[in-house]
Amino acid sequence: MIKIAPSILSADFSNLEEQIQKIDKGGADLVHLDVMDGQFVPNITFGPPVIKNIRRVTDLPFDVHLMIDRPERYIKEFVDAGADIITVHQESTLHLHRTIQQIKSYGIKASVALNPSTPLETIKHVIDDLDMVLIMTVNPGFGGQSFIPQMKEKIKELRKWIDSKKLDIDIQVDGGIKLDNIKEVIDCGANVFVAGSAIFGTDNIIDTTKKFKSI
């Protein structure tokens, strides 16, 4: 099943409730929440208090992407704020298996993200415990970047790997996804797509979300 997860990183925070309602009307499947700490990535966004406030304005599942150093320190706070899925980076925690189990202990979905230069083999021994793998198709930290074409082969390889093991795991792609390239990334085997400026940077957020869904 193809799912669209608009990233509010590109939304207008002065009208955030209205913008989230628009992606909901457009048929979005998830709200993607990019949490950055200025250490693991060169940018700072928001934390649990903001997510807790956003939780009040929508029933859409919250897809919380932790681009932070040592995320295991804050898992409970993000669960309490309303996260339905928590993604941690393989590169950000020393004990990845322990962090995955920590997430799952709260009864929510666990996901691991891989930066463009991080090989798939680094999650070989934890993939059976995952609900989703996030392939970064840009270097994390800023919105509006261009898709790195070499990541198509990585997505294809991951899809073959998951299918060969007969696992029920989503493949999410984050970075540079637009209406004119999403179809080719679907063909590579991904099924969950993060789009920020490609949705919130348009004149009609509802219609653009519907266009993504129609593909």
From TrEMBL:
What does UniProt give as GO cellular component?
cytoplasm
Regions that span the bilayer: none
Reply yes or no: does the keyword Isomerase apply: yes
Which sites bind substrate? S7, H65, G141, F142, G143, G144, D174, G175, G176, G196, S197
Which Pfam families does the protein's record reference?
Answer: Ribul_P_3_epim (PF00834)
Its pathway, per UniProt, is:
Carbohydrate degradation
Record-linked SUPFAM superfamilies = Ribulose-phoshate binding barrel
Q: Which cofactor does it need?
A: Co(2+); Mn(2+); Zn(2+); Fe(2+)
Catalytic EC class: isomerase
**Co-factor: note:** Binds 1 divalent metal cation per subunit.
Summarize where a divalent metal cation binds, as residue positions.
Answer: H32, D34, H65, D174
The alphabetical list of record keywords is: Carbohydrate metabolism, Cobalt, Isomerase, Manganese, Metal-binding, Zinc
Catalytic residues per the record?
A: D34, D174
GO MF entry, a single one? D-ribulose-phosphate 3-epimerase activity
**Which GO terms of type biological process are on file?**
pentose catabolic process; pentose-phosphate shunt
Q: Which family does it belong to?
A: Belongs to the ribulose-phosphate 3-epimerase family.
State the HAMAP family in the record: RPE
Q: What is this protein called?
A: Ribulose-phosphate 3-epimerase
Organism from which the protein derives:
Gottschalkia purinilytica (Clostridium purinilyticum)
